[in-house]
Amino acid sequence: MKKRIEHLIFKHFDEHLTDEEAKELVEWIENGNREKFDAYTDLNFSIESTKNEKHRGNPSLWQNITSVINNPRPKVKSLHYWRYIAAASVVLLVAATFLTDKTPPPAIVTPTNPDINKNILIGSDKATLTLEDGSSIVLEKGKNYTTDNIKSNGEKVTYKSTGSDKGNTTKVSYNYLTVPRGGQFFIELEDGTLVWLNSESQLKYPTVFLTGKPREVELIYGEAYFDVSPSTEHQGAIFKVHTNEQEVEVLGTEFNIKAYQDETFIYTTLVEGKVLLDNKIQKEFLNPNQQLVLNKETKNTVIKEVDVNYEVSWKDGIFSFKSKPLKDIMKVLSRWYDVDFTFLNPKLETIKYIGALNKDQELEEILSIIKNTNFINAYEIKENTILIK
């Protein structure tokens, strides 16, 4: 019975409960097992702080959880749902191998190590803004920067047209926003398009979009989430995002592009609307909940259905993984915490995990959670390199 319930709980975390399984889980919880259920969800202190701050005066956490279990899966447009679920009840990481029942269930232990390595910093809002003349401005929390058409409070940068610059059809000025490892940043372009930049990313864009001309930006490398201002608000001007290997044309939509230099594939995920991708060999349309994977070496493409919540939750402060190999998870963590990982046992790289992690957690707390799954023996921190044993 214990394995059955644990199986249902992790299926709930992975959003794959059937109606009958959901009823079974709710009946078990309401039959005097609410505390046991909480033991699975309260894996670290960040959950408790989230409850205290975000749910004060609201219905009980239990009511919210049962509501999630009982109600149909939300539409992808409500992406804040995923952030809420991760903060309230899914801030954990478990080996997906456990779901096959081939191994004993992992120990559910809250990390309590008081000697957490404070030399490894949690990522934060920071970026470098490079202007047309080549000068650079460091943007970070607590530092303001303002010009006639640029304003930054250290957490985001906003561009506004001065009016006369829209009519200048002879020259376009470009700026670069570069986010280092251990950083993230938000930008509002002059046309109202919103862009979230992930760690180790760079975006090139015009300071103003000219009237009657296509609105074009370039994701030079990294990952970015775009919420594009509709073309109907800009005299029909289309919006294009260029990368080294492809061009994405949109009319007004939300999508994510992941195009890191050290990765073989470019992932374009459509959340809402419609986009056309052109890699100079073929053109493909994407519909919501679809992801196009482009092999940069062979130029081959594959379109697949995905749960977009897992693909874009990073912009809402959550790392979410759905049967991801540990090697891929460590690559994500390396960019956010600006560290490197080395696997002393290559077999550990392929262990798959599901779950979500709060980006405000200390890295060592996350490593402790992974260790408590009993699939890795230990980890060792040597300056900015983590050895996985």
UniProtKB/TrEMBL annotation:
It comes from the Bacteria. Residues 319-388 form the Protein FecR C-terminal domain. InterPro entries: FecR (IPR006860), FecR_C (IPR032508), Ferrdict_sens_TM (IPR012373). Pfam families: FecR (PF04773), FecR_C (PF16344). Residues 179-275 form the FecR protein domain. One of its GO terms (molecular function) is sigma factor antagonist activity. This is FecR family protein. It comes from Snuella sedimenti. The lineage of its organism: Bacteria, Pseudomonadati, Bacteroidota, Flavobacteriia, Flavobacteriales.
